[in-house]
Amino acid sequence: MNRIYTTGILVLSTCLATAQSAKPLMQMEKHGPRTVHTRPQAPQEARGNSYYSETFDTDLNGWTIETAVGQVDWKWTDVGPGPTTSLYPVPALNTSTPSGWAMIDDDYDGVNGQNTNASLISPVIDLSGVGTSFLKVEFDQYFQEFQLDTTFVGVSTDGGATWNEALINEFVGRDGRPNPELVDVDISAWVAANPANVQLRFRYVSTWDYGWQIDNIAIRELPANDMAILRASSTAFDFENTGFAFMDYSIYPVAEVTSMTPSAALKNKGYLDQTGVQLMVDVDGPNGPEQSTQSASSTYVNGVEMTETAEAFTPSGALGDYSIRFSVAQNEVDEVLGNNELVNTFKVSNFVYAHDDGATQSFISQGLDAEDQPYEVGHHFALINAGALTGVQVAVHANTPVGSYVHGAIYEPSTTSGVHPALMEFTEDFMVTEADLNQTGDANFISMPFSPPIDLVAGQTYLIMAGTFDGPSGVQFAYSGSSEAQISIIHYPDLPSDFEFYMTRTPMVRIIIGSGVGIDENTTAVANLGNRPNPFAGTTTITFDVTTPAPTSILVHDATGRMVHAEVLGQLPMGQQRYIFNAEGLAPGLYTYTVQTGTSRSTRSMMVAR
């Protein structure tokens, strides 16, 4: 299908101009689509003796505000950040005491280009009775940045005349922190100068950014031995060094299962050195345990954070669910076990390739500076083996008007800033119905076939999108999970420049590929397999030639590999055969059907329409 793009003139405001970028590809949007999501994180750790705590349940409770630069101040809240011109407001802090917390809401209270340097300072805390204990300050935070904000925690023992500070957040990305995240800082040396006159300070420095929310501040004993896993990755993806190789997918088609190199960020949260530290990785597949690997051993001094990489492994490729359990081991006896483990999961299917987590969280739409523009959302997919792209699947949010049109598209990615990706092909347009809409937690996918299928080349990366040309009609695409930079894309095809940005939200856009489409797996006994009509609603006629008489069966699978129909046809004679398949009760979407005769089989795809 040919489609003509119209090119209009659109002046983007500074809040949609330059942002974080990696190589000469995509920039990140600020105002416009906003991310609202949580990331996997370590469980909350067991806590030792507490010498001070503040939960901000009702107000700031004697904490004072000092604004050195700008007009944005800290404040107490029990609802979270205020509404802004962004379509996706910064989420409220998820805390264990949701009745109140402290916040600096830079996006709502600030203005474009305004500098801010604002501090939240505690009353004097008397720790003179603590003795020689090692101490830490810990707190819950949610931090979301655009590009120019940093945050610090400080301690003063001379009435605020001088401060020792630790940098807490810098260059973490718009969604670089969990919600909530438990943070701790060793303050033992700072407190020792005058334990009876301790003050804490939370300082935020920015040029109109998003903000910082904190709660449940405590001063506690620092354990002697405490190794923690902060975050973990199943693969070696690092765009700056690897390009699109080793992207982490939530669903792999069996033909694309490959070697994985697990890694994790570890930190010594105790005051003693930890020796013989190893990252341990255990992989379970659909049929039970598959692999156990580990990193080389290391020594961690107090407060040190490092990334450890375990030995690579290759999943078996059996269809079903996989889990990768990351744990940390050391020679010393760990006193805090609650932060020693994380688990990542993924699936292997027959034909589905996906980045998303599978359940709608919220929606993506155009940035306000491009709200009338056609746009597309999707991902980069790297092919290890050659295959055939048969369709795109997309989930649309419940805010989308019924009767809107969406389409799928495949591009060759551009490696030059300011140049559109090269269009390879569109699917037909699909009209959205009530049954296609997704509320939070739903996973209703629209399937849009490429006819004929598109051959994909081994070793190539493709940009595959779902989009709408009805710019102002209100199509809003569902998202689920978070993506590393450069993987997930929002594309404005009609803009002459500044048209393509990466997102850390993960659009629910999937592709269907594999040898199950258009390729005979064995044609010794079966030939000329096909069906008409295709796509179809109701029934379709499957035809095939039997070349060698043998007991014959027909099997139908959905896009996840689940068998939805099976029938034994018995011993069939040589010649052309006809089988009427009734799709009553099946959801619209892409299916495969297999005619199996003895030890041979042949497979094709079909599309069930409404």
Task: Annotate the secondary structure layout.
Blueprint: E1 27-28, E2 50-54, E3 64-69, E4 74-77, E5 101-104, H1 106-109, E6 115-121, E7 135-144, E8 150-156, E9 164-169, E10 181-186, H2 188-191, E11 199-207, E12 211-221, E13 227-233, H3 239-242, E14 251-253, E15 263-268, E16 274-285, E17 288-294, E18 298-300, E19 305-309, E20 320-329, E21 341-349, E22 352-353, E23 362-364, E24 375-382, E25 387-394, E26 396-397, E27 405-412, E28 422-426, E29 430-431, E30 437-438, E31 446-456, E32 461-468, E33 477-482, E34 488-491, E35 500-503, E36 505-507, E37 509-513, E38 526-532, E39 539-546, E40 550-558, E41 563-572, E42 575-582, E43 589-597, E44 600-608
Parallel strand pairs: 1-35, 14-21, 26-30
Antiparallel strand pairs: 2-12, 3-6, 4-5, 5-12, 6-11, 7-10, 7-12, 8-9, 8-11, 13-15, 15-19, 16-17, 16-18, 16-20, 20-21, 22-37, 23-33, 24-32, 24-34, 25-31, 25-37, 27-28, 27-29, 27-32, 33-36, 34-35, 38-39, 39-42, 40-41, 40-43, 43-44
Description:
With 610 residues, the protein is an all-beta fold. The chain has 4 domains: 50-221, Jelly Rolls, CATH 2.60.120; 227-352, Coagulation Factor XIII, subunit A, domain 1 (Coagulation Factor XIII, Chain A, domain 1, Distorted Sandwich), CATH 2.70.50.30; 361-513, Jelly Rolls; 526-608, Immunoglobulin-like (Sandwich). 2% of the residues lie in helices and 46% in strands. Strands 1, 24, 27, 28, 29, 32, 34 and 35 form an 8-stranded mixed sheet that branches. Strands 2, 4, 5, 7, 10 and 12 form a 6-stranded antiparallel sheet that branches. Strands 14, 16, 17, 18, 20 and 21 form a 6-stranded mixed sheet that branches. Strand 16 (274-285) and strand 17 (288-294) form a beta hairpin. Residues 1-25, 29-47 and 515-524 have low confidence and may be disordered.
